[in-house]
Design a protein that fits this description.
It is built from three helices and six strands, in the order βββαβααββ. The protein has helices at about 20-30, 40-50, 55-75, and strands spanning about 1-5, 10, 15, 40, 85, 90-95. The strands form two sheets. A three-stranded antiparallel sheet has the order 1-2-3. A three-stranded antiparallel sheet has the order 4-6-5.
Length: about 100
């Protein structure tokens, strides 16, 4: 997976993933620390803003949409996409390596 933050574009293999603004920001945040747990609080602060006033359920909705788009890109490219793993009571991890 590749992300070009300057052009705000993401690809899996040679297939571009069409992302909305917050989906891109979320992916860019997760990909800067692959295979590392990122807390919900850090994601909300970095992707939305530290003064976000509302439900953090918006994070779950955006992660769900991002997962669907990554899987669809993987199907088009014929490759196994990285997985966004939910870490209960903590946050998420972009899993790029096989778990042993």
């Amino acid at each position: 997976m590749a992300v070009d933050t300057g052009a705000r574009r993401a690809w899996l293999a040679s297939h571009e993933i069409p992302l909305r603004a917050k989906e891109f920001d979320l992916l860019a945040r997760l990909i800067c620390e692959p295979d590392t747990a990122v807390s919900r609080e850090a994601l909300m602060s970095d992707v939305w803003d530290e003064n976000w006033f509302g439900s953090t359920k918006t994070l779950d909705v955006h992660v769900s949409a991002l997962r669907r788009k990554i899987v669809a890109a993987g199907e088009r490219a014929g490759v196994g996409p990285p997985e966004i793993v939910t870490l209960r009571a903590h946050g998420y991890r972009l899993q790029t390596r096989p778990v042993s």
